[in-house]
Amino acid sequence: MYRIDSMYEPMVEALLAARSENKVDGWMACVAFWLGRQQIYNVPDYWLALAAKITSGLSDADQNTILDQLSSKEAALVSSAVDWPETPGSLLAIVSGWSPEPPPVDLYAYAASKRYAVETGGILLNGMRVMTDRASQSLITGAYNYVQANPDVLVKFKTSGGFVELTAAQMTTIANAVGAHVQAAFAAESDVNVQIIAGMITTKAGVDAFAWPSDAGQSTDT
């Protein structure tokens, strides 16, 4: 784990990570020269050789900006740089012992993503799979409004299994079932948030384990 009183560790980690990806950038050269001048982790020759190699690969403008700030010894290293220096074993051993804390999980955002997946995942209504993605919700609402104004019509309704013909009563049943499912999903997210605040849910696994709405109970006759 990083020590709070040290700025070297994140600098070293970022530099070595960029080097492992064969990146060459001005900030890398500046960091490497600084680490070498400060003799960080007792490998100044490595840092200076790394800085020189990075600098030699920069554009002329960036290279000149850095060369203007170097001593004659450092500038000579740049002009003679050929191969990438081998990372000392002592430095690798130090770096391998670091284990930064993972970033905290935003449980509220995770619960919202879980609710969205449940909300839009569809329902099973008397053996008919009804899609509940946002576009389907809008179309179902439109069809429901249509049959309220035209109760004698039959509507064509597309399910995940294909087209069916529905009466106004059946369309109303579907709209009510979808609306209830969506509301149950949001109610579940609200309850999860309450439990997060209370410290009862502290992990993503706890969010997943909550009693989210499912297809169970969707047996209303159409």
TrEMBL record:
Pfam families: DUF4376 (PF14301)
Matching InterPro entries: DUF4376
Origin superkingdom: Bacteria
Domain DUF4376 residues, every copy: 107-208
Protein name, per record: DUF4376 domain-containing protein
Species of the source: Rhizobium tropici
